[in-house]
Design a protein that fits this description.
By secondary structure, the protein is an alpha+beta fold. The chain has helices at 2-19, 95-108, 138-143, and strands at residues 37-39, 48-55, 69-78, 81-90, 114-121, 127-135, 156-160. It has three helices and seven strands; from the N terminus they run H-E-E-E-E-H-E-E-H-E. The relative contact order is 0.13.
Length: 162
Amino acid sequence: MARSALPMLFLLAALLLAGCSGAPKQEARSSAEDTKQRTVAEPTGEQTTTSVENTGSENAGGSGGPEYIVIGESEREEGGVRTAQVIVTAKKTSKRELRNIVEDLKDKYRNTDAASVEIMDGPAGFGKAGSAVIMNTDEGARHFGYPDGVPNSRGYVLKTAD
């Protein structure tokens, strides 16, 4: 129970910060206006954390890319395997839209071995729309429990909440 409460608390804090940012509502911001807050990793392989509101897609605002907001991100290297954990929220959560989000994130995390993604439903992010494991290498796939390596040609597995 405590493990599931921690991401929810993080999510609520990020949403509160996003609501207080003064950015106009109903208006997608370009990637040039994105904000990030980063804690730099130690050379020993410690965790790197990124949080607080950045537009998920550089195409947000009508250029054809999926619209989502990354509300939490962490990267880690352990045993030579680079992984990332990402939490996003999206207004549109159809299976096709979730697939577009995961494919966009796969491109953004192409320099990692694997990434786990949690997709929250709606602008408030209170419900879970789906989750995915993005696998760029066999080592990354094994890290996330796929002993035979990357299981398909897409390089990710998406599970929707419905």
